What does this fold into?
Amino acid sequence: MLIGGIIFSAGLVSIAYVQSVFFLLLIFATFIAIGGPALGNLSVTKLVANWFDAKAGVALGIAAIGISFSGVIGKVFFGYLIDRVQANRPVMIMMLMQAIGIFGLTMVETFDLFLLSCFIFGLGFGGAMVLMSACFLKAFGSQNLGSVRGISAVIIVPVQPLGIFIVGQAFDAGFYIQAFLLMGVASLVALLVSSQISIQQKDYPSLQQQ
It folds into this structure.
């Protein structure tokens, strides 16, 4: 994180002196693109995991509040929950909340129920980052957390634009509500899948070279 902070700071200082679009893009593609992720969720998660053991879930939840202000209650709640129950149970609750929120947003007809649906979805969505890090921590140990998060990002990040493309196409075709409903169905499928997952904490060897 220290190296990331130095690189990112150098990028911000460089932007103050830039006088052409080319150099502005060059700074964003180098200093900002490298320093930004080094200060992001992966670094914070790894750092916090090294400090806490028994209360890792709560610690990760509190750390996530500083990264994102959305779903603050959900982050702390799920962080507290995963420290005390089987790991897949909070994931199931998270996916159920997201499904209820999504279906509510598309079906309710009153403003009060709309707000309630937003609140329920926010609770579930807020727990996503905390639960991912906490489940990785329980399954692979703190010594492998950075490597596992990095490997998972290689799989997750390229797939994310596909969802944006599908929803954008659905909106242009006039099927925006159906796209929301598809997201709700996907959340229910994830709920069923997570119910079959068993995460047991073991002493895994480090994935990093000694």
In short: The chain has a mean pLDDT of 75. The chain has ten helices and no strands.
